[in-house]
Amino acid sequence: MATTQEKTTPCCVHNDTAKSLPPQAPPALLRKPSDDWAVAAPDPSEDPSRKRSAVATMIHSFETVTDSPTTNAASAKGIPIMVRAQTSHPLDPLSAAEISVAVATVRAAGATPEVRDGMRFFEVALVEPDKNVVALADAYFFPPFQPSLLPKTKGGPVIPSKLPPRKARLVVYNKKSNETSIWIVQLSEVHAATRGGHHRGKVVWSKVVPDVQPPMDAVEYAECEAVVKDFPLFREAMKRRGIEDMDLVMVDAWCAGYHSDADAPSRRLAKPLIFCRTESDCPMENGYARPVEGIHILVDMQNMVVIEFEDRKLVPLPPADPLRNYTPGETRGGVDRSDVKPLQIIQPEGPSFRVNGHFVQWQKWNFRIGFTPREGLVIYSVAYIDGSRGRRPVAHRLSFVEMVVPYGDPNEPHYRKNAFDAGEDGLGKNAHSLKKGCDCLGYIKYFDAHLTNFNGGVETIENCVCLHEEDHGILWKHQDWRSGLAEVRRSRRLTVSFICTVANYEYGFFWHFYQDGKIEAEVKLTGVLSLGALQPGETRKYGTTIAPGLYAPVHQHFFVARMDMAVDCKPGEGFNQVVEVNVKIEEPGKNNVHNNAFYAEEELLRSELQAMRDCNTLSARHWIVRNTRNVNRTGQLTGYKLVPGSNCLPLAGSEAKFLRRAAFLKHNLWVTPYARDEMYPGGEFPNQNPRVGEGLATWVKQNRSLEEADIVLWYVFGITHIPRLEDWPVMPVERIGFMLMPHGFFNCSPAVDVPPSAGDVEVKDNGISVKPIQNGLIAKL
């Protein structure tokens, strides 16, 4: 992922004078650096407090790199100078060059030409370093340049001349052997004067993972479609339905899931869904309006052959729905509205945010932007600048790690539609270039994303992540009725987002940062419904009829946010705990003689099994992550609380097949102590996974203590979709999410110092609304 210049789109304003952080010399470069040094990895069983007190752990598992010199001969004044500053923060996404080196290194390590030829590359991602390495980087090498992140030591800190080398983690599938393997490659940037500026890589670890299947890839989807459309029995089946032009046919290669031993990962399988357009010369026709039912197909994706085919039931194709298309105006046989006036968002002085590489500063917030093939957008090192209290951490890492879409129709083929869109496809891999349509207005900073393709090449998604400010209505207001004086402030928020398409659905993932210290996570759902066909005169209670012969099955969407919290904690500290809060009604009696009393009751979640919790709107249930060693001015522990939005649980029986792989959906909240290999709630490889409850549901059986720990929240939130006619032909956005809010974190509202702006006041002139604008003039609306 790489930063790009701010760009002009039809819906954003371009300004070449982008604000960026001024170049600063890290303190590490302003003093004589010590020699490169390394220490052995500490014993995992060692007391965490001892680990924190050891300065050596600031470079955990550091391997000395002698071929990457960082200093040259002394200058004329005898002061060592660095010929090349550290170029990549330890949390920066892999560059295109690093991905290329990692792929080439692994390919070269193949034992035989056959092994090398069979390699397919599903994921190349950064190996995120230990948190103490991040602390070292942020203390002396990169913004925010905060030495206080490191523990104090006798004699002062020992500052190495460089950080550990970056590493890449690769998920590789061998198409010839049907084996999945994981590789770790150390990346070394070699100085131009000594090695011609090339990069090098070294395999430091590899392992074949048995009984798994990696995610599907877009190349495989395209190959599967071609194979199915060329299969003679399929052509005959389509001919019986009146279709002979294969250019009209759409084949969506859905993962097989796991319903029985026949779906075991010993074979790489897909069970495609079939759709058919009506016009071959209309590339934007909504082909999902004509589902083809009654045909069973099983494809061997390793050898790319159809291994099972049965035309089980002749269901007529739905007639062409005249309302099926969603393209503009006359292209869909309709007329667009003509009374929508232009809306321009103008920031004549540029944005209020500043960006240096992937480091972002805005309205006392600062954080880093990352990106992975599986999760897409990742937010790192979230902190708030709180006056004399300085930079206060809130979270180490925020991301959406999984999503599941189970359908509620027990009929073929809908009962097996339960996609794991992150684990089986990859949210990042399916991200959009926002050049093709941006939902942001105003002054925008874009970030590109670099990913590997199936064959190991590097592909760049330009304008993949969007960073911009939004006006968000009133932040706060009060009018004194005695004096008639009023104060009002408008709210502004900083939004970081990306959008991906998985088959028929679009998902927008947003992190909003507010001036009052709140963080909002939001998912926007849109796109096209996945439909079923009906026999003439048939209705089905498991969906909504939206056109003749056409219905939309009921279904649910679930998302899992993984939040590695760090409330007032330096990287690696474990001083957080989680408290559940429920509102209780006071029992009638001497303490409640008026029967109006209620109060908030807190309960400390002491262990993992106790912390498997569900939402409860009747008790206004929420959860607070508190620092056990830091208090506010009233003596209360500082904290951030997770406030649920609308939510649901799976509407399926306990023996539902998809719950074997998605046991994490059984509760809305899970809490675990941080463990670096616990990343994905359904395990790393949910595709055709036969293991029951792998991942989060298994990890918590250890029942580890949470009373004072490095806390990770797993919040599961979802929406139950009962389709409407108004969701056709394209579904208007539905929004779900949650809020992280300061709770005793600040001594008063951090929004009180937000200044009034010229656009805050609106007066009436003879019944016509008029409003001051930034230059002080009055604009009639």
UniProtKB/TrEMBL annotation:
The modification 2',4',5'-topaquinone is found at residue 505. GO terms for cellular component: peroxisome. GO terms for biological process: amine metabolic process. The keyword Electron transport does not apply. Signal peptide: none annotated. Keywords: Copper, Disulfide bond, Manganese, Metal-binding, Oxidoreductase, Peroxisome, TPQ. Residues 1-52 are annotated as: Disordered. Residues 343-751 form the Copper amine oxidase catalytic domain. It is found in: Peroxisome. Topaquinone (TPQ) is generated by copper-dependent autoxidation of a specific tyrosyl residue. SUPFAM superfamilies: Amine oxidase catalytic domain, Amine oxidase N-terminal region. Contains 1 topaquinone per subunit. Residues 214-317 form the Copper amine oxidase N3-terminal domain. It holds the Pfam family Cu_amine_oxidN2. It catalyses: a primary methyl amine + O2 + H2O = an aldehyde + H2O2 + NH4(+). It is an enzyme of class 1 (oxidoreductase). One of its GO terms (molecular function) is copper ion binding. InterPro entries: Cu_amine_oxidase, Cu_amine_oxidase_C, Cu_amine_oxidase_C_sf, Cu_amine_oxidase_N-reg, Cu_amine_oxidase_N2, Cu_amine_oxidase_N3. Residues 89-177 form the Copper amine oxidase N2-terminal domain. The active site is at residues 421, 505. Its cofactor is Cu cation; Zn(2+). Its EC number is 1.4.3.-. Homodimer. Belongs to the copper/topaquinone oxidase family. This is Amine oxidase.
